[in-house]
Design a protein that fits this description.
alpha/beta; Rossmann fold; 6-stranded parallel sheet; 11 strands; globular; binds 5,10-Methenyltetrahydrofolate; NAD(P)-bd_dom_sf
Length: 300
């Protein structure tokens, strides 16, 4: 069976064009969206992500500010910085890049971001919305992965889906998003006894583990859609490095119906979802303030 490659760059470009229009509308209404990114310490995966965020924000005409804090910063200092951004009306979105150093509590930091400015949907109140089937704004990588599955045209109602990986930011939200759309979802993880037994049943297979080559052809049902969320840097015998996913692309591509490449699959769509979330967040704030004070007036 020949596979179709799901091109994340094409999907991302279409989403970004739509976001750009919405940004123009928001600005005309007196609400310029501004996204603040918080990173702590130097993590190469984060640096790449933030660079792409900055570039995409530029394309969508969203203001972007990058805050980089030293790895030894105290929890209280970061909380104070987040509270400052919560209180600053010019800031409409805050994203805390993961991971943060071990001495910090990521949960407490995520919970400190005001839900109206939580453009990643990781505040407990935001992630709870997904459980209640409010699916407009959710964690970017999870939303991007589901978006790519939708590109196949497969109907989600009753679809057999297997998600490999149960992280808070990817696997769990994917499972909830798909359940909300009627899929039959199995979630596998490092304690699953026989991964292949599950993965071979899947009409759609999502993989977010961080293990290069984990999924090989005999673990995939012929014709399935395979969404590869892994980002792993591997060193080749000649000492050069390259980025690969969790799926053994060359073997799986031969039997899958659809497959996402790495790079060029989920990654670019993740960044486009963040920009869309930034607009949704700013729109919610605009609505919130207008419901209290009426429409913004020119010059104020
Ligand atoms: N709070 C939080 N949310 C995240 O979603 C999050 C995070 N922290 N920390 C870091 C990881 C990593 N991540 C990436 C997203 C897109 C690309 C991306 O755009 N990848 C391109 C790479 C293109 C290039 O090489 O420039 C691609 O796959 O084609 C990469 C990495 C999000 N993460």
């Amino acid at each position: 069976m020949s596979h179709a490659e799901l091109d994340g760059r094409v999907v991302a470009a279409a989403m970004l064009a739509e976001t750009r229009k919405q940004v123009a509308d928001l600005k005309a209404g007196g609400w310029a969206p501004k996204l603040c990114s918080i990173s702590v310490g130097d993590v190469s995966a984060v640096q790449l992500y933030v660079r792409n965020q900055k570039r995409n924000a530029g394309k969508a005409e969203i203001q972007f500010e990058e805050l980089l804090f030293p790895a030894d910063i105290h929890q209280e200092q970061l909380l104070a910085a987040i509270h400052g951004m919560n209180a600053d009306p010019r800031v409409t979105g805050i994203i805390l890049q993961r991971p943060v150093p071990n001495h910090l509590s990521i949960k407490q930091l995520q919970a400190a971001i005001h839900p109206l400015k939580d453009v990643e949907g990781m505040h407990p109140a935001s992630i709870g919305n997904i459980v209640y089937n409010e699916l407009e704004l959710g964690p970017c990588t999870a939303m991007a992965s589901v978006e790519l599955l939708k590109q196949t045209g497969l109907g989600l109602a009753g679809l057999e889906v297997v998600v490999v990986g149960h992280s808070e930011i990817v696997g769990k939200p994917i499972a909830f998003l798909l359940m909300a759309e009627g899929a039959t979802v199995t979630v596998c993880h490092h304690m699953t006894r026989n991964l292949a037994v599950h993965s071979r049943r899947a009409d759609a297979l999502f993989v977010a583990v961080g293990k290069p080559g984990l999924i090989t052809a005999e673990m995939v049902k012929p014709g399935a859609a395979v969404i590869d969320i892994g980002i792993n840097q591997v060193t080749l015998p000649d000492n050069s490095t390259r980025v690969v996913g969790d799926v053994d692309f060359d073997s799986v591509a031969k039997i899958a119906g659809w497959i996402t490449p790495v790079p060029g699959g989920v990654g670019p769509v993740t960044v486009a979802v963040l920009m869309r979330n930034a607009v949704i967040g700013a729109t919610r704030q605009k609505r919130h303030y207008e419901s209290l004070f009426g429409p913004a007036q020119a010059g104020i």
